Amino acid sequence: MTDILNAFILLSNFVLIPAIAYGSQLALGALGITLIYGILRFSNFAHGDTMAFGTMFVILFTWWFQSMGINLGPLPTALLALPFGIACCIGFVLITDRTVYKFYRKQKAAPVIYVIASVGVMFVMNGLVRFVIGPNDQRFADGERFIIKAREFKQMTGLSEGMSIKVSQGLTLVTAVLVVIALFWFLNKTRTGKSMRAYSDNEDLALLSGIDPDKVVRVTWILAAVLATIAGTLYGLDKSFKPFTYFQLLLPMFAAAIVGGLGSPVGAIAGGFVIAFSEIMITYPYKKFIAYIGPDGWTPNGLMQLLATDYKFAVSFIILLVVLLFKPTGLFAGKSV
Amino acid sequence: MIEVKNLSKSFSGFLAVNDASLKIETGSITGLVGPNGAGKTTLFNVIAGVHAPTDGQVLLDGQDITGLAPHELFHRGLLRTFQIAHEFSSLTVRENLMMVPADQMGETLWKTWTNPSAVRAQEEQTRAKADDVIEFLEISHVADELAGNLSGGQKKLLELGRTMMVDAKIVFLDEVGAGVNRTLLNTIGDAIIRLNQERGYTFCVIEHDMDFIGRLCDPVIVMAEGGVLAEGTLDEIKANEQVIEAYLGTGLKNKEAS
Ligand SMILES: Nc1ncnc2c1ncn2[C@@H]1O[C@H](COP(=O)(O)OP(=O)(O)OP(=O)(O)O)[C@@H](O)[C@H]1O
Ligand SMILES: [Mg+2]
């Protein structure tokens, strides 16, 4: 019995909890991608670097607050810096829209041109981030580290396996839930949200109604910047901040958005968790787990890992391929890609 | 008044509208008829700013509106419906109608926070208007249904309903009657006449149903092969040899004669 409990705790600690946190981060990122796709109708390759860009400002403000001795006690100071980072990110994203995307909108350019333009924006943002904060790892998490420590958990339960929950993980889940509730309230209940959905449903008709397309586009960018900065900050608190990692997040985030159905917010959230769970479950070594649940002496020699962690991006890629082959509109019937 | 001057629109060399000139007088219900592919819808699309014309001009009350974007024209009171019904499929019928009026305070984010009561009051007003339109079109039973789930005819009604949500100057209807049953078609006809008389809407109506045209429209403009073939009252049109040949066919003539 204790073996089964231990096995369960082991999986919770190394799979369930990290996957929930990572899934929430991917979901927030994928929401931004899906909103841009639904309304501006292109795949924004700069989204990963938008996350890095927003997070960079959060870090800079965090350091500044820390230098002045301002903090939030047990919570990371980054939470206090978040609104400022968001504001900077919104500002930059709106400037890019004005200077880059607006031109192509006027031209009624084909989606592929937008995509290429977004790749250009991606390089610019990437360069700016590396120029300002450098390409290296930055740690900016402070305050308490753990909600529950593995050792305390062991003492409490008397089990040999411990379960730890990091503050960043708890924070990620709480923030993601709040943000998603706010976003869905916004999309379904407010006039602007309805305008956005209407615009996403049928652009021609939206232009022939009292919907101001400029406003819809602006609000979409603002939401994307907010989501990107929050997702990036949570990811950075949970792991660490490194510009290249954020660029790499593009693949799992796109996979999440496409798996869920591009343009569908619910799909983006579901997709985020599908990708996160698959990635972590497939790269987790089950050796110890099998030792617990299997009969005595069954402990395998190998790690029992389906795929080495180095190949974790292949997981997103394979899921993406399978979904595109069998259900191109994604799980929640977004727009066909 | 809408004035179309020597308008042409070519799609990669094919002239869908060819040097068409016509006038739609303020206060009139002008019919626009012609064989399939005559260029009627294309003409609408050019007037409504969906396509830029290859050549020519469109004037609204003497002002040049050629090439203005659809939403700019909407703000000047020029509305249109689509031959193939358009709707916001993931919004309800009522929400679809409520999207039409412009300058809703709820659309400005900070007003939602700073002046919620005014925003709500305006929204209530829009909702009441939408409910009136829904009742008028006798689609109350689907008011909270997603517009994407409506039948073809119901979508057509929604198209018409949209034009009733704001005070339009001129409304272009592209076959609103197609796919709608007879009794409802009469209701639509009544609605158009009432909007015309009570609210002063000017209409330009594309329709293939000659009875419908006969009941509503004066004058009637006939288009064929991208150009304007004839203009006049329905009786004049019916007597026009060219029109008979190009559109109405001799069957009608024989019927009239007998
Ligand atoms: N976007 C387009 N690209 C290419 N050709 C087009 C386009 N739109 C219309 N056409 C062509 O222009 C011609 C006129 O089409 P239009 O839709 O204006 O006809 P219509 O008079 O509305 O006919 P109907 O009574 O069948 O609705 C047709 O031959 C059509 O193939
Ligand atoms: Mg047509």
TrEMBL record, chain A:
Keywords per UniProt: Amino-acid transport, Cell inner membrane, Cell membrane, Membrane, Transmembrane, Transmembrane helix, Transport
Keyword presence, Nucleotide-binding: no
Compartments where found: Cell membrane
InterPro entries xref list: ABC_transp_permease (IPR001851), BCAA_transport_permease (IPR052157)
Listed PANTHER family: BRANCHED-CHAIN AMINO ACID TRANSPORT SYSTEM PERMEASE PROTEIN LIVH, HIGH-AFFINITY BRANCHED-CHAIN AMINO ACID TRANSPORT SYSTEM PERMEASE PROTEIN LIVH
Superkingdom of origin: Bacteria
Protein name: Branched-chain amino acid ABC transporter permease
Lineage, broadest ranks: Bacteria, Pseudomonadati, Pseudomonadota, Alphaproteobacteria, Rhodobacterales
TrEMBL record, chain B:
Domain (ABC transporter) ranges: 2-250
GO MF assignments: ATP binding
Domain of life of the native organism: Bacteria
This protein's UniProt keywords: ATP-binding, Nucleotide-binding, Transport
Annotated SUPFAM superfamilies: P-loop containing nucleoside triphosphate hydrolases
Keyword flag Ion transport: no
Cited Gene3D superfamilies: P-loop containing nucleotide triphosphate hydrolases
Name the record gives this protein: ABC transporter ATP-binding protein
Species: Amylibacter marinus
Source lineage: Bacteria, Pseudomonadati, Pseudomonadota, Alphaproteobacteria, Rhodobacterales
